[in-house]
Every structure is written in structure tokens, then in C-alpha cells.
Prior knowledge:
- By secondary structure, this protein is mostly helical.
- It is 76% helix and 0% strand.
Amino acid sequence: MTDTTSRRTQEERRGEAEQRLILAAAELVGEIGPAGVTLANVGERAGYSRGLATHHFGSKGALMQRLVDSVTTQFREAVPPAGESHSALDEGLRLVEVYMSVLADPQPANRARLALWADAVASASSDLRPAMIAADREFRAAIADSLQRGIDNGELTSSVHPEGLATVIVGMLRGVALQTLLDGDVDLAACHKEIHALLAARLEDAR
């Protein structure tokens, strides 16, 4: 085995171990809550030693940050880049569709991210609070930028406040997500239909 092959194999093993640890952390957050998660029980859940999570991430906060970043990246990649859609309305409705499709079949990491967000809201001392604030600002900014492009190109009138509407859109989506996390009987299809109708009506009215 060459040195290059050996390094690649080591990197692959390290990457696999980190992904298994992140998944284990997500599962535990969903089962016992963020406060009950430790690096030791994450290592055990992943099938490794109690100390491997510490070796890879150094701290619980760093592991939780990687979990949050992983989910954020997956969602960002699922949403078409700005400009690929024909209008701000198309982009907004596509965003809603992607978000609701994730809620329809949430993975452990998706549930964990919502739980960590709620924990950051409830606890001002949460280590993840700054990261959650930054991620939410990025999410709102992406929506606001799309709306601003619609205003700039004449698709929408200036009656639309990009930042304000972006905050409302995120609020609707996040609110439905949290209710779904708490109560599995929430009718997601009905929620999707109503959010679609509300957003379409608001932007059609601003044309």
C-alpha cells in the first residue's frame, strides 16, 4: 500500500467515524434532549470507545456545532441557487416545498437541529445560541435577497419589506416544524397548502 493510498484510507476512516458520531449525537438529542448528551454516550452509541468523540471533536459544543452545520449545508444544497428560478415567487414557493418535504420525512439530524434551536431559545447561556442566531440570519438574508431582486427587477413593488417578509416566512416554517416535532398529528399537507396560498397571495398582490 502506497503512502498516498494509506493517507486516503485514513481520511476515509476518519470521515466515516465523524459521520457516525454526528448521527449518534443527533439520535441522542432526539431521544434524551441536548442536556443529556455527552461525548462519552455519543461514542458508545456510534459503536466506538467512550473517548473517540472527544478525540474527533474536542468538546460537546464543537460536536453540536458540526451537527448544526451539517443539516444547514444539506438544506442549502437542496434549494436551487438564486437566479435559477424565474421569479421571487417561484423561489419562495420552491423554498417552502423543500422545507416541507424535509418535515414530511425528518431524519434524526433534522429533529436534532430543531431541538437544539429550541434549546438555544430557552437558554441564553446555550453554547449554540450564537451559531443558531447566525444561521437564522443567513436563512432570512437569503430569502430577503430574493425578494429584493424581485423589487429591483420590477417584479414586485416596494410595498414588500424584504427583511420583514423573510422573517415572517421563516417564522411560519419554523413554527410548523416545532409543532410537528411536538405533535405527530399535525397535518403537514394542509400546512403546506396554506403557507403556499399565503405567500402566493402576498407576492401576487405586490405585483
